[in-house]
TrEMBL record:
Similarity comment: family membership: Belongs to the TrkH potassium transport family.
Localization, UniProt: Cell inner membrane; Cell membrane
Task of the protein: Low-affinity potassium transport system. Interacts with Trk system potassium uptake protein TrkA.
GO cellular component, one term: plasma membrane
GO molecular function, one term: potassium:chloride symporter activity
Assigned keywords, A-Z: Cell inner membrane, Cell membrane, Ion transport, Membrane, Metal-binding, Potassium, Potassium transport, Transmembrane, Transmembrane helix, Transport
Residue spans crossing the bilayer: 27-46, 58-79, 121-143, 164-186, 222-241, 261-279, 320-341, 379-402, 443-468
Name of the protein described by the UniProt record: Trk system potassium uptake protein
Organism of this sequence: Marivibrio halodurans
Keyword Transmembrane helix: yes
Residues given in the record as K(+) binding sites: T99, T100, G207, T303, N419, V420
Membrane topology: Multi-pass membrane protein
Length: 470
């Protein structure tokens, strides 16, 4: 069914290319037909009585879906007149569906409209897909502490909307509504209609694909930067809280501790950068606020837009942006990275441990959103942190073995596993892209994007021998 949906989505850029007389419409039409054939064939050959998914089936379905979809989504990119190898096409498609935003394409300013729209559609579909997965699948799989939201999900939403299909439909409506509002505001900021639609899809999805090599910086518009910053933040907040706010509790977003922590991280980083730009580099104060707010939000939320090369800001910027890559946004949003709630759980656990050291006989309990954190959640979050850091190190070492320099290897590993987009340095920084990397590096980075998007455990569990027993 997912492949059939992807096939129908391919018809949209096909129509656009046909309307402007670009021959790539035939590529999209043929790729759509082939994908639809495979999807429908699988649906028809697997029509059996089916109950609920087992845990093993849910793990396998989730991981395989996020591998198979980019494999088919890469077909138009490979066969279009872009001269992309299948490796490059798969990298671009995986980056799109996982809302990473890393790209191997150059000359976007002259690319056919169908290709530009297809990249934006991939990120938009991937964004809504990760929200639904975070709400319905990851809590059930107890991945990286996400079971914490199984209880909140039941308390906040299931009483009002008992069916998962209803909840998914409401989330899709909210997601579409935010996209349309964002596109309208971009258009009011004098962005051309086609580009406003593309950037709205990739902004709300916190994906970062642009229609220009210079990203959003090509517009040189303060209003465009403001709209992008606001909607990158909106895409980083839990969509279940939007649903709750619309239905019964309008203050849900304000009272949620994860949202407050997110704005705390963001506010401190922006304030520090504004101070550095204004006092250290002597840039105008208002310009410093605009540039810092946009680029800090873009990196922390994993969107990956850029208005300028922040690698030229001096020694302060690279380490700050490197650390921000790992944070991400809130659980249940379109963002990626480690997620804010895990930092909250670790902080609460560490605080309790400090109290136990001072008062060994005392009884102390870690809390999240004013509720006790189960021991299983604490263990799951700490396991996630360990695997995240270990895999980041292994991927960076692997990229170094393939000939990449230190900055490119480490920032490439970080930006891929955190699903951010641009890295640091002259090669893959905001002024460069991933086109010059060897094919082996692109496949390794594609794996890192998949691991980061599926919260690591969902993929690694497939390599456990016990998974395939029984």
């Amino acid at each position: 069914m997912l492949l059939a949906t992807l096939a129908l989505a391919m018809l949209v850029p096909a129509v656009i290319d046909l309307a402007v007389g670009n021959p790539d419409w035939e590529v999209f039409a043929m790729a759509s037909a082939f994908t639809l054939f495979v999807g429908v064939m699988l649906v028809l050959t697997n029509r059996v009585r089916f109950g609920s998914l087992t845990i093993r089936q849910a793990f396998l379905m989730t991981a395989s879906a996020w591998v198979v979809l980019p494999a088919f989504a890469a077909l138009p990119l490979h066969f279009a007149d872009l001269q992309l190898s299948y490796t490059d096409a798969f990298f671009e498609a995986m980056s799109g569906i996982t809302t990473t935003g890393s790209t191997v394409l150059v000359g976007l300013d002259f690319a056919p409209p169908g290709i530009l729209l297809w990249r934006s559609l991939l990120q938009w579909l991937g964004g809504v897909g990760i929200i639904v997965m975070a709400v319905s699948i990851l809590p059930m799989l107890q991945v990286g502490g996400m079971q914490l939201f199984r209880m909140e999900f039941a308390e906040r939403v299931e009483k009002a909307l008992p069916r998962a299909a209803q909840i998914g439909a409401w989330i899709a409506i909210i997601y579409l509504g935010l996209t349309l509002i964002c596109a309208g505001l971009y258009r009011m900021a004098d962005m051309p209609t086609f580009e406003a639609i593309n950037h709205a899809m990739t902004t709300v999805a916190t994906g970062g694909y642009s229609t220009h090599d210079r990203s959003v910086g090509v517009f040189e518009s303060a209003w465009v930067d403001v709209v992008a910053t606001v909607f990158m933040i909106l895409g980083s907040l839990p969509f279940l809280l939007y649903l709750q706010a619309l239905r019964a509790h309008p203050m849900a977003l304000v009272t949620d501790s994860q949202v407050r922590w997110f704005f705390g991280f963001l506010g401190v980083a922006v304030a520090a950068t504004v101070g550095y730009l204004h006092l250290g580099l002597e840039r105008p104060f208002l310009d410093s606020i605009r540039v810092a707010a946009f680029n800090i939000t873009s990196i922390m939320t994993g969107t990956g837009y850029a208005t300028e090369d922040f690698g030229q800001w001096g020694a302060f910027a690279p380490p700050l942006f490197f650390l921000l890559m790992f944070i991400g946004g809130c659980a249940g949003s379109t963002t990626c990275g480690i997620k804010v709630f895990r930092f909250q759980v670790l902080y609460a656990t560490a605080r309790v441990q400090m109290k136990r050291l001072l008062q060994p006989n005392g009884v102390f309990i870690a809390y999240y959103n004013r509720k006790p954190i189960p021991d299983t959640v604490e263990a799951s979050v700490m396991s996630f942190f360990f695997l995240f850091i270990m895999l980041f190190a292994l991927i960076a070492i692997g990229l170094g073995m393939l000939g990449l320099d230190f900055i490119t290897a480490t920032s490439g590993a970080a930006t891929a596993i955190a699903n951010v987009g641009p890295g640091l340095g002259p090669v893959i920084g905001p002024a460069g892209n991933f086109a010059t990397l060897p094919d082996a590096a692109k496949w390794l980075l594609s794996l890192a994007m998949l691991l980061g998007r599926l919260e690591i455990f969902t993929v690694l569990v497939l390599f456990a021998p016990g998974f395939w027993r029984q």
